[in-house]
Each structure stands twice: as C-alpha cells, then as structure tokens.
Amino acid sequence: MSGLTRLEDALAQMLGSVKSPPGTATRPLLDALGAVLAEDVVATVDVPPDDNSAMDGYALRAADLPGPLPVSQRIPAGQVGNPLKPGTAARIFTGAATPLGADAVVMQENCEEADGLLTVNGGVDPGQNIRLRGQDIKAGEIALRAGRRLRPQDMGLLASVGVDCVTVYRPLRVAVLSTGDELVEPGQGPLQAGQLYNSNRYTLAGLVGALGMEWVDCGIIRDDAQATAEALQEAAAVADCVITSGGVSVGEEDHVKRQVERLGQLDLWKLAVKPGKPLAFGRIAGTPFIGLPGNPTSVFVTFVLVARPFLLKMQGVAEVSTPVLLAKSGFSTGRAGPRQDHIRVSLEQSELGLTARRFANQSSGVLSSVSYSNALAIVPPGRVISEGDDVEVLLLDLLTG
Ligand SMILES: Nc1nc2c(c(=O)[nH]1)N[C@H]1C(S)=C(S)[C@@H](COP(=O)(O)OP(=O)(O)OC[C@H]3O[C@@H](n4cnc5c(N)ncnc54)[C@H](O)[C@@H]3O)O[C@H]1N2
Ligand code: MOO
Ligand SMILES: [Mg+2]
After folding, report:
1. Atom 4 of ligand 1, residue of closest alpha carbon
2. pLDDT tens digits for range 60-84
3. Does residue 390 sit in the same domain as residue 270?
4. Which atom of ligand 2 is closest in space to residue 298's alpha carbon?
C-alpha cells in the first residue's frame, strides 16, 4: 500500500463496506432532531384535513356574484359552519374550514359589509383563496422515508400528520482517541516546554456530537506500541466506530497504523487529499477504524470529507452527500499537485457574485483559519486555479451541523 488513493475511490470503498445499521428505538418526536428514521412514516390523515380559507374575508359561491349578498353566518378557525345558503356569503377567517357549497373566499380588503349585506369589488374566480383538503399530504402517502435524518422542518412535517413518536436508529457510539506524548488537556495546568493543549479531542467531540452521535471519550494514548494496542482494543470493544487522531504517519513514534495492522486489518492508507494524506481506514476486531492524521486542520478536513459520510452511512442515512456550491475564486494557486487541495476561504458577496477569499496561512498545523473560515475551496488534483475562475466550495455550516 504505497500510492495515494483518490478521495472518491476511498469513499466508495469505505461506504461500500458499511454493514447493517444500528438497532432501533422509539423516541418522542421532540427528542428526535438529528436522528435517522428507521421506518417509513405513512400519513394517516389528509393535510390540511379540510378545505379551508387562506384569507380573512368572506366565503361565497362565485356564481352568486354580483351581489350584494346577505352575510348568513360567521366561521372562525376551529369551528365548522353550516352548509352555505344559496345566494349568501359567510364571514370567515384564515384557517377556518370553508362551508359546504362555498367555492371561493374574497379577502376582506376587496369587499364591504354594511347592515349585513356584502358588496364585492372586482371579479372572483372559483377556487380563489381556498386551500384544498390533502393538498399538502394525503392519507396513505409516505410523509418521510426510512433513512431520513430529521431536520427541524421534518419534525414539523411529521407533527402535521399527527405523529408524536418515531422509530429511529439508536445513535452510533463513536470512540475518540487522541495520541501524542506532547498533549495536555486544557484545564490541566500550564504547558511545560514541548507540550501543547489537546485541541483535536474538542474538535472531534463537536463534529461527532453535531451528527447526533454519541461521543465516547477514550482520552489520550501515549506514543507507545503496547499502550496504543490496548487503547485501540478497548475502544473497539465499546464503540461502533473508533476514530483516532495522530500517529498514522511514517515516524517510529507513529504507532496507530502499525497496531491496527497487527490487531486487525488496514484497508486504506494515504489518500490524495491535502491536508490529511496519511489517513488510515480499517477494522479492529470487526469494528471500523478511521485514523485521522494528527495535524489539527487535517483532523477537521478529513473528518468532514471522509469520516462524516462514513458515519452517516453507518447511522442508516439513505442518501449521504457532501454538497458543493460554485463560487468565484479570489485567489490563484501555484503548481498543480497530485492531491485534491482544500483551501480555507471566506465566502463573500462581491460584484462578481460569491467570491472565495483565501486565508493567508494554510498550514495544516494552523487551526485559527479553520475557525475563521466559512468554506473550503476544492482544488482538484492536477488543476491550477486562477483568480476569477469558478471553484467548488464546501459550506462548513452544512457539514458541521
Ligand atoms: N517523513 C514524513 N513525515 C510526515 C509525513 C510524510 O509523508 N513523511 N506526512 C506529514 C503529514 S502530511 C501529516 S498530516 C502528519 C500526520 O502525522 P500523524 O498522523 O502521525 O500525527 P502526529 O505526528 O501524531 O501529529 C502531527 C501534528 O499534529 C499535532 N497534534 C497531534 N494530535 C494533536 C491533538 N490532539 N491536538 C493538537 N495537536 C495535535 C502534533 O503535535 C503534531 O504537530 O505527518 C507529517 N509527517
Ligand atoms: O496532509 Mo498533512 O495533513 O499536510 O498536514
Ligand atoms: Mg507523526
């Protein structure tokens, strides 16, 4: 395993290796944001349940005009009126069921009521301002399919068909391990020479949590073969997937990749991506393992590009995608490289449209530009980008929530 694997090939291999989704549980809809539906949800009612008024005004038969028409009843939302007497109008309010016989609603701004008689200004078409029963969803239709990761608007849709509990896959348990003798946890005192604070643990806790999954904190592994082997085995025994940061490159202090080879199987190592080249993927005692390269930006970028789609597929999401947008490049790249590069940019509106402005420091050890950016611009392998070119961008808010 020496050459670099293209990102799309690595993803195809990884996603193709996903087996059955986790077990299921029933959850109150209000607690199900971000959970993945394990069953289709079939509507048992029409939405809306009745033909109803889209306006505050008067319900009538269009053919009865021109009036004036006597106002024969008053129908607020939540009440059911009587069938509309021919040659009359009903005072009606937005959302109220229209009375049997009415075929139009005139908004009150277009008519006048005086002494119980309604005069309508202008023409009225049959069907005007009436929202038909079942126009949103009909009883018997699938409101949402299994494999949908619930967003706020999906929760609203399910509530609209009367659902208050859903069957979802239980959240994946994702073990996160940091590696490195130089690491100190924030809050554990000042740094000694050669040390730095463990930022990857926090980045990964956030990324895993934002996917609605359970973060299993497995702490820091020291740069030692035996300690690495033990920690990996323990993590694999308690989690659905093990994610490590660091220790996957070629130095003799990089133990993770070697121990995975020894304990289980290594299916992928080294991708044609920048940052994050030495990413490793395999299994430990059957549990999937993703070894993210330790540099803080490499952790973030490879999680978003590789771990996120893999975990979502494991979680049971039916359609996993990494959405891209087109923007104008506000920068030029140098020599074409063999790896797909991911440039931290700030997307800004300009006279050219949406423009991707490059942050000055693109080092994979620099986390501030990841935090300050709102997108990654993609430079495909072998491509040179000039200022003003179209460039594909990944919106970070779409991928971290
Ligand atoms: N001779 C070569 N050296 C390196 C190569 C190479 O091809 N040949 N690749 C480089 C690339 S690219 C990357 S990326 C790194 C990946 O290295 P590792 O995954 O082995 O990670 P470490 O060496 O353990 O750490 C790298 C870097 O990141 C810092 N780090 C690690 N963990 C954390 C953490 N939890 N919080 C904050 N910072 C962390 C660590 O201190 C190092 O500076 O390898 C290159 N080397
Ligand atoms: O690919 Mo490494 O992630 O350059 O720093
Ligand atoms: Mg290393």
Report:
1. 249
2. 999 999 979 999 999 999 999 999 9
3. no
4. 3
Confidence band of 1 (pLDDT split at 50, 70, 90): very low
Q: Determine which residue's CA is closest to atom 4 belonging to ligand 2.
A: 275
For residue 254, tell me if it sits in a domain.
yes
Shared domain for 280 and 303, answered yes or no, is yes
Q: Is the beta carbon of 276 within 6 A of some atom in ligand 2?
A: yes
Q: Which ligand is nearest to the Cα of residue 293, counting in written order?
A: 1
Residues 60, 39 share a domain? no
Give 356 Cα–ligand 1 centroid separation in angstroms: 28
Residues 201 and 280 in one domain: yes
Whether the predicted pLDDT of 214 surpasses 90: yes
Ligand 1 centroid to Cα of residue 294, in Å, is: 4
- Going from the Cα of 3 to the center of ligand 2, the distance in angstroms, rounded, reads 16
CA of 367 to the centre of ligand 3 (A): 18
Residue 329 reports pLDDT greater than 60:
yes
ipTM confidence: 0.98
Instruction: Kindly report the CATH number assigned to the domain that includes residue 86.
Output: 2.170.190.11
- 289, 229 contact by CB (below 8 A): no
CATH number of the domain at 161, please.
Answer: 3.90.105.10
Residue 296 has pLDDT above 50, yes or no: yes
Whether 260 and 334 share a structural domain: no
Q: Is the CB of 254 under 6 A from ligand 1?
A: yes
Q: Is residue 311 part of a domain?
A: yes
Confidence of residue 110 (pLDDT cuts 50, 70, 90): very high
Q: Is the CB of 275 under 6 A from ligand 2?
A: yes
Contact 103, 51 (CB under 8 A): no
Same-domain pairing of 17 and 32: no
Q: What is the pLDDT of residue 350?
A: 80
Q: What is the count of structural domains for the chain?
A: 4
Q: Would the CB of 244 count as within 6 Å of ligand 1?
A: no
Same domain, 80 and 113: yes
Q: Which domain holds residue 281?
A: 7-22+171-315
Nearest atom within ligand 2 for CA of residue 274: 1
Is the confidence at residue 2, as pLDDT, over 80?
Answer: no
Contact indicator for 99, 53 with CB cutoff of 8 Å: no
Do 201 and 257 lie in a common domain? yes
Is the full-model pTM beyond 0.90?
A: yes
- So what's the pLDDT on residue 353? 87
Q: Which ligand sits closest to the CA of 273? A: 2
